[in-house]
Structures are given as C-alpha cells and as structure tokens.
Design the sequence.
C-alpha cells in the first residue's frame, strides 16, 4: 500500500514519514508547495494547523484533487470541536487529535486495505455537524 503525507512544516513531515516508512511506500510534500503528485496513493495522511486560514485553503485545494483516495486521515493538534469539524469538512475520513499513537495510525491505515471502517459515534456526530455547517454557509443555505 502507498501512503502520501502532506504537512505544513518540515518537522511534521519528517515525523510522519519516519512513522510510516517501515510499513508503507511513502511519498510526501510540504503543504505550501503541494502539487499533489500522489495519483496512485491508497491513503493520504495530513498534519497541519487548521487555525491558519492559508493551511485550510491549501488543504481544500489539495483534497479536492484526491477524491479517488478512500482513506484521508487528518492529525490535528488540539481537541477542539471546531478543528475536528473543519478536518471532516475538508474531506477527512478519520481525524486523530493530539499526539497520535504510532500503532493506532498504522492500524487505521491497515484498515484502508480492507473495507471502509464504520465511523464511531463521535465521528458520525462530527460528520453531521460538518455537513450542517457546510450547508448553512453554502450560497442559498439556511
């Protein structure tokens, strides 16, 4: 399985690569220079500060090109509902908060090879909130 990693800083990019390289074929790029060359990747892992508007814009563009990738994992720094909802609104299929456990990330990626995971109650709630939020700010939304 191939995994594409996108991060907003070189340190985060390096940390994610080192976590995944022994298990998967990994490609990576910095968010600021993202051209999204991962057309053959099975999964994407993104780590960026979602409080920075520029990061949100860049991720939106990047993930718009990745609709064919069924597993899109976001790693966010803070356990804030707004950041979790933002990640799901950007296209995340799974969001991990704070320092992610290496084994947990590998398990989630391993699940990408099988059938899509059934979202837990918190994930469903966040996805519903993201959908409602997106509908309310869409042109002509209520």
Sequence:
């Amino acid at each position: 399985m191939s995994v594409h990693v996108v991060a907003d800083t070189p340190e985060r990019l390096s940390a994610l690569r080192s976590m995944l390289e022994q298990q998967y074929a990994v490609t990576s790029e910095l968010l600021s220079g993202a051209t999204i060359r991962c057309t053959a990747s099975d999964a994407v892992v993104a780590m960026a500060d979602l409080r920075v508007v520029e990061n949100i814009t860049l991720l939106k563009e990047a993930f718009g090109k990745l609709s064919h990738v069924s597993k899109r994992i976001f790693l966010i720094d803070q356990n804030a509902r707004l950041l979790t909802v933002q990640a799901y609104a950007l296209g995340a299929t799974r969001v991990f908060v704070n320092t992610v456990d290496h084994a947990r990330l590998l398990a989630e990626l391993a699940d990408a090879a099988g059938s899509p995971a059934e979202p837990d109650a918190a994930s469903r709630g966040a996805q519903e909130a993201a959908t409602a939020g997106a509908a309310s700010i869409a042109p002509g939304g209520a």
